[in-house]
């Protein structure tokens, strides 16, 4: 298990990703603030602790693969790729523009993006194909796929889940961002899927459940998944949609909402307060 300094660094990384996210959403244009922010800690742990890759070559064939099946949340992935230096920070100001590199859903023209996703339910199928290919080629690469809980209503996803179990793909890890909200409201009201963990267990997966905003728990689950043999692992990450943005938390309106100048200022102040709390906790541990 990593030391406390590592966990502190991961918390700071997740916070920086949210600052970058806010910069990309900006004022006056629609942006997926809610579902991107709920994944900040998961993405921070993956990119700055778990994934194996070559920082000098995003296409190094020995790299692990991360697929964002809920592609509408790609802004949080862009934030991580930017922090890795894989494209200039100036691109954050040009998101979803014709002249910009970063589009509203993942595109393989962007360094670090592994597949075009966003048509919900397809990402796990791609991940199964990658994991199966690595297994056939006897390569050690691992594959990680992040899905939304609303996305679980897609039938193709469950076909992929069965396939992963059938082929014993223990090099595959699925992560469900369980923030309990989707574009049109609470998932329980739109298409209720109770007992998510039990369903994946019934499909033959090793199932773990974590607080998706606790970097220590996320690291522990990802480490544990590497020790599982003969079946894939599914991590249910319980999260808050819009985490750290007071007006967006638990609010479906900010699945793809528009920020006014006032809301932008509130969001910035929210992040500054959260940064101060993190710094305060670190100082308490030192004293």
Describe it for me?
The chain contains ten helices and nine strands. The chain has helices at residues 4-25, 33-37, 40-50, 74-83, 123-136, 155-166, 187-191, 196-202, 215-226, 261-286; strands spanning 30-31, 65-68, 143-148, 172-178, 181-182, 185-186, 206-211, 233-238, 257-258. It has a five-stranded parallel beta sheet, sandwiched between helices. It has a two-stranded antiparallel ribbon with strand order 1-9. Strands 5-6 form a two-stranded antiparallel ribbon.
Quickly count the helices: 10
Q: Could you say which structural class the secondary elements and strand pairing correspond to?
A: alpha/beta
Percent of residues in beta strands? 5-15%
The low-pLDDT segments are none
CATH class: Alpha Beta
Q: Give the terminus-to-terminus CA distance.
A: 23 Å
Q: Name the helix and strand elements from N-terminus to C-terminus, one letter apiece.
A: HEHHEHHEHEEEHHEHEEH
Number of strands: 9
CATH superfamily: Thiamin diphosphate (ThDP)-binding fold, Pyr/PP domains
- CATH topology: the name is Rossmann fold
The overall pLDDT average reads 96
**Per the principal axes of the C-alpha atoms, what is the gross shape?**
globular
Strand order of the largest sheet: 2-3-4-8-7
Which architecture does the CATH hierarchy give at level 2?
3-Layer(aba) Sandwich
Largest sheet: 5 strands, parallel
The domain count comes to 1
Global Rg: 18 Å
Helix content: 40-55%
